[in-house]
Amino acid sequence: MDVLWVVAHPEPRSLTGVLAAEGRAALEEQGHRVAVSNLYAMRWDPVLTREDYGLDANERLFVSHGSRRAYDAGTLPPEIRAEQEKLRRADALVLQFPLWWFGMPAILKGWVDRVFVDGFAYGVRGPDGRTRRYGDGVLAGKRALVVTTTGGPDSAFGPRGINGHVEELLFPLLHGTLFYAGATVLPPLLVPGADRFTEEDRLRAGAALRGRLAGLGTDAPLPFRPQRGGDYDEHLVLRPHLTPGQAGLSVHMADSPEVRAAS
């Protein structure tokens, strides 16, 4: 497989940095080809500007329209087009970052904002004229794994943990970005204790990462419901016979995190 590994941490000696190097080595040992986008090392600019789309100061910035026009014309900045080409080539995508304030570092959010433009990751229509999203799109057929480190214990991110279940904390990324763009999304790997990791912790985390990477092409994905699978009505609302009486993020999975945790 061709794998794109996107890592967002400013310190290469951090647990994130150490695991990124180990993960790449593990994939290459398995015979995979790995491209790395180390956003801090690249000095990636996370700020979307009108200059991305070739707009002058007198033109109002409409992000969707502007990005679509620049994408179709092939005039997006070269650094954006390079990342899009990496995504096209990849069979799998790994996003690795520390969980800061329950989300991605700004530099990684900015990578998504600038790379996942209209015409590339959204606003794409199929031959039937219908919009491709939620299980269909540019990332269709590609697998995606999120690896995130945190300072707290993993139990605090479980189904009843005070921090919230990790799959729900990462729902905007897992479902609203990766699955929206068509990827087959694997359960995230949460690595706890990043601020105080010892050599023993590193070995344990490295083994867990290697185990997940060994199943990158075969492990069962999160059971998100595709938009065009019949579970949603014409208003994009889950049909009432599915998980009746329930609401919230978990209803958009064919089974709930609690069921998977107990299995």
UniProtKB/TrEMBL annotation:
Residues 1-203 form the Flavodoxin-like fold domain. This is NAD(P)H dehydrogenase. Keywords: Oxidoreductase. Belongs to the NAD(P)H dehydrogenase (quinone) family. It comes from the Bacteria. Pfam families: Flavodoxin_2. InterPro entries: Flavodoxin_fold, Flavoprotein-like_sf, NAD(P)H_dehydrogenase_qn. The keyword Signal does not apply. The keyword NAD does not apply. GO terms for cellular component: cytosol. GO terms for molecular function: NAD(P)H dehydrogenase (quinone) activity.
